[in-house]
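$ run holo --ligand "S-adenosylmethionine" --emit tokens
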Amino acid sequence: MTEPSLHAVSTAGAYDAVAVRYAALFHDYLDSLPLDRAVIAAFADSVRAAGGGTVADLGCGPGYVTAHLRGLGLDAFGVDLSPVMIGLAREAYPGLRFDVGSMDALHDVADGELDGILSWYSVIHTPPRDLPSYFDEFHRTLAPGGHLLLGFFESGGGPLDAFDHKVTTAYRWPIDDLAALAVTAGFTETARMLREPGPEERFRRGHLLMTRDGGRRDADEFPVPGPS
Ligand SMILES: C[S@@+](CC[C@H](N)C(=O)[O-])C[C@H]1O[C@@H](n2cnc3c(N)ncnc32)[C@H](O)[C@@H]1O
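-- output --
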């Protein structure tokens, strides 16, 4: 078993510290976001249409999106770095499976075991230089033809940018750059959805629906933009 990175340890600590407040604040959050629900529903339909059902909600936080996926008929389980988040998720949704772990090292998940992966505002904290290895792990664990949905902060026409997220440093990605990085890891884009920030939100939201294909593209074709 590899040691967690310093970044993983500090992200877990930052979310442990706010987990109770976060869970209370976001418990019903999806109810107020019809476009976000629509893109998650399209993801769930795609997984089911392909005959699958096993979905990992990576960076699941307090588990309300995992429970939403279960409500859409998927056999969803959650993984998060933060033990406090996972404790709250287990308490709130005792019938569901939640594991402490890092989404770039899914040791309990066999190659091609998953029909879908949702990363809902969870790779936002990943240093851009580390993201290729995260996408490699998503590619390893998804079945060929499996579906990936990424939700993230979009840079709104500007470059990749770090910002002062309330919990810990996060990144805003140009949607084209994030899509290109996923393509490099062996995904094909199916659809994208951008929405402008709502009244309580600071940034444009990006959503990418991708499918896992067979091989891995030459990384030089799609270089990772800065910052490193
Ligand atoms: C902004 S919260 C999003 C939580 C949930 N997906 C939601 O939409 O409310 C980011 C979550 O990602 C988790 N996270 C960040 N990096 C992670 C990693 N490498 N592996 C697993 N979880 C991670 C954090 O602990 C945190 O719970």
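-- notes --
The longest strand covers residues 142-153.
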